[in-house]
Amino acid sequence: MLSILRNRRFRLAWLSYTASSTATSLTPVALTLFLLDTHGGVAVLGLVLGSRTAGFVVGAVAGGMITDGYPRRTVLTTASAVRGTAILASVAAFTVSVPAICAAILVAGIGEGIFRGAYQALIGEAVAEPDRQRANALSTLSNRLMLVGGPTLAALLYITVGGPVTLAATGLLWICSAGLALLLPRGERPPSNDARRRPFADYAEVLREAGRHRWFVTGLGALVVWLALGFAVQQLTLPLVSRNDLGGNTFLGIALGCYSAGAVAAALLLSRWTTRRPGTVAFVGLSLYGLVPLALTVPSVSPQWGAALVLLAYFLGGIGIEAFNIPWFSAIQREVPPERMGRLFSFDFMVSHGVAPLGLIALPYALTSIGQTPVLWVCGLLTIAAALSALAVPGARDLADPRTATRTEAVL
Predict the structure, then answer these.
(1) By the 8 A CB rule, do 279 and 338 touch?
(2) Counting beta carbons within 10 angstroms of the beta carbon of residue 69, is it exposed (0 to 12), middle (13 to 18) or buried (19 or more)?
(3) Residue ranges per structural domain of the chain
(4) Is-contact 326 399, C-beta < 8 A?
């Protein structure tokens, strides 16, 4: 897997991505703990985390109009610089007001939304097709290795030096990510000049491209359910379950570390194994994440067994989400032309993350009015059902539209 790093352009982008992943692993825990201690309440936590996801969606929309029209180097450098500056500004915003915090985190999310689409498109552009799954697996591996220790490190930093210093450290890491992206080779041409001259008209063409792939549209639907329900509800309830039933903030870091450990295991496996049915692996893997909300219902009844089940569920959820991500990214890089790839990735992130802020805003009210356990059950079961039902769509098991294969055979 490491042989892919001989590709200098990919190597520099991967180093920038790894620095970014380190900052990403620290930010949610630092924000959560700092908010609970300074402003309190799950509603404020939902607003701030929702602002980050809303910013990600805005960045994905912007990325959909600029990613293929400018050099990857320029896009990656600017996106990381924006994130780093915004997180540094959020430190001061904590002394002002909740809206000021939301504004700073929103801007950081914008940078993240632009960066993700550009980075995935760069892999498709700079790495040959036989090596792309390894490149995606290595990216996942580096990201998750950072996330294994990141949550625990964030909790320890928070306890030792406090929230402001911990958040400032994440901002500086993103500035380092921008510096590494700046070292990418100069002068590469943008994949599409039309993306710069006619961003909205060309974006419509990308929408038509998305519509040609039924597996892609179906996958987006499953991702929407996962992010708006399964992922969002655990963001809101894990800190409360950790503090109220499982002994404090340390368990939160351990649970997220188990999630990342599962993702690392999946990345190592998929770096060496290419399945004939990538869609089956992907959607079954995504369904495993539904176990996380279900497990979070147990600690209030049985803390001892609940702790073990929560950790196991997060480990399986980590395996599942990367068993989905790696084949999913590889399929887009394989099936979509390079001149539209960056915008299709941005469209993917825009749609799948677009409803997540709604979940983060609406779920706190459901949790307080209906109750934590019923909401967790509904979110978990719907996550499982949405992922598994996607397998009924033609082409979903292969992540390749069967109509494309039929047309190719007819031409031959």
Answers:
(1) no
(2) buried
(3) 2-411
(4) no
Q: Which amino acid is at 267?
A: A
CA dist., res. 8 & res. 54, Å (int): 34
DSSP letters for 126-174: HS-GGGHHHHHHHHHHHHHHHHHHHHHHHHHHHHHH-HHHHHHHHHHHH
pLDDT (tens place) for every residue of the chain, 412 residues total: 567 788 888 899 999 999 988 888 888 888 888 888 787 666 777 788 778 877 887 887 777 677 777 788 888 999 999 999 999 998 888 888 888 888 999 999 888 888 888 888 888 888 887 788 888 888 878 877 776 677 778 888 888 888 888 889 899 999 999 999 999 886 566 665 555 555 555 667 777 777 788 888 899 889 989 988 999 899 888 888 888 887 777 788 788 878 878 888 888 888 777 778 888 999 999 999 999 999 999 887 777 788 889 999 999 999 999 899 888 888 888 888 777 777 777 778 777 766 766 787 788 888 888 988 999 999 999 999 999 999 998 888 888 877 544 443 433 4
Using an 8 Å Cβ cutoff, are 27 and 53 in contact? no
Residue with token string 């940078």: 111
* Burial (0-12, 13-18, 19+ Cβ within 10 Å), 240: middle
182 CB-contact burial (10 Å; exposed 0-12 / middle 13-18 / buried 19+): middle
Buried/exposed code over 267-305 (b: 16+ C-beta within 10 A; e: otherwise)? bbebbeeeeeebbbbbbbbbbbbbbbbbbbbbbeeeeee
CATH, domain 2-411, list 1.25.40.10, 2.40.50.140, 1.20.1250.20, 1.10.10.10: 1.20.1250.20
